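User: Hey, quick favor. My workstation is busy. Could you predict this chain's structure for me?
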Amino acid sequence: MKEFTCVEELRGIARRRVPRMFYDYVDGGSWTESTYRANEADFRKLEFRQRVAVDISKRRTATTMIGQAVSMPVAIAPTGLTGMQIADGEILAARAAKRFGIPFTLSTMSICSMEAVAEATQRHPFWFQVYVLRDRGFVASLIERARAANCSALMVTMDLQVFGQRHKDKKNGLSLPPKMTLRNIVDMAMRPRWCLGMLGTRHRQFGNIIGHVDGVSDMGSLVEWTAQQFDPALSWRDVEWIKERWGGPLIVKGILDAEDARLAVDSGADAVIVSNHGGRQLDGAPSSISALPPIVEAVGGRVEVHMDGGIRSGQDVLKAIALGARGVYIGRAMMYGLGACGEAGVAEVLRIIRNELDLSMAFCGKTDVRQVDRSILLQR
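Assistant: No problem, here it is.
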């Protein structure tokens, strides 16, 4: 595989290779997509303070996230339908993360099950993301399965009590199961590489759910069950219940408000993720990077603060760290690499990001990512 210069190049290839309904699922937001666009645009408003004549001969990007050693302060975010970007997508991404020395987070709504990912990675520890569903018995079983699969941290997503209105998904007929319109059939047929991959894998359904819930044995029965499961009555007591049952490191995702961050910590969170769900929920909400500083100020002394949303480069990683994030997550950037070139594409995205992080840190006169603070940014 050739060497790429930036994540955007892989995005272009993914657009050509992945069927439109699944590509747009990744590369889109809710309503007008203003928050989705702001996640990237607001990073560009932050300017670096370049320094010279500093000894930068020895540099280090390694650090820790919730006590786990990482080669750089980046983790792979939980993304639904990853296995529809390319066959066995979750397994391929987990393998790339393992080789690179960063955490991989598996979504409840993954195509490959947690057991399949554990087997394919020789039970290398990974993180698991869970939704608080009405069926608490199923949530409890997910937690126990995550423990058995050697997951080292649990992540609870809090901002999906109801679904944001995602216009691209509606227009493309992305549903459970996807609508096989003539347009979608033709679109898939024009991507033979994708089709052959799907024909050759046994992972084509939601592996964490189908076969693990009474009465849910195929995509058809999954539809009715899923429609009833996302819980608008979600409360912080549910987080306390999960923490008590899990017992290990707990990360709470979907925080945009300082008061919610404090409540998450009080409920047992070991880390909070500043996130607007990639601009896929409340359009018109602030970008993740703009919401980060007040949340760091509110709880940064008590727990780690992470963030996701808009990370497309190592420079974005560095800016987030400068504003107080202990680590960041990549979702779309990872999916671009995966859709473009599979496992090698994810590895290439990680290589690009670490190289950009390392060089940008050097230009700012820093040799250790753990030393990075607001001083590397211009104060306007």
